[in-house]
Amino acid sequence: xxxxxxxxxxxxxxxxxxxxxxxxxxxxxxxxxxxxxxxxxxxxxxxxxxxxxxxxxxxxxxxxxxxxxxxxxxxxxxxxxxxxxxxxxxxxxxxxxxxxxxxxxxxxxxxxxxxxxxxxxxxxxxxxxxxxxxxxxxxxxxxxxxxxxxxxxxxxxxxxxxxxxxxxxxxxxxxxxxxxxxxxxxxxxxxxxxxxxxxxxxxxxxxxxxxxxxxxxxxxxxx
Length: 223
Hints:
signal, Ferritin-like, single chain, metal-binding, Ferritin-like_SF, 8 helices
């Protein structure tokens, strides 16, 4: 009796396995016959990656562009004429961060089976090639530019998160990735820069702000 039950159970399992739709297995098997009409379905794409891929592409481009802007600002304040090591350090760290963020986004897209179109990056209106950054002599206005940049990066990260949570189908993996890596840190960056802008604006309103600006730069260098 026990042997009969075991045989029946084994046969049921085999029947269930046969009923499964092993799409990738079938595709690979057919692919060995060099049938070019067979659709490629054995890939790493799943969930709502199709809904968010273009948004991530745009965010990659934006990070590369802003990294370039911050790098120019850093070099500007590192010259012997300006000699602001604190501002140089601040903008260099922000340039490195934006570049690293672009690399992480590229890894995320390729891990999910997507591709990054670098031609689109060079042709985008916010690309490095199209950049026309006006370098400000005034340290206060440079902080204003940095605050605008951070708000733009935050808005783009929020847009990607919205696409991944409201698209059909959803892409919870991308939503979690953006929320954990970008949104909280961007909020902190906006808060920090807005504080710098308000502090330095009070210094600049003095009759002779030169000493105050120097001390503020020293403060930035120690951060």
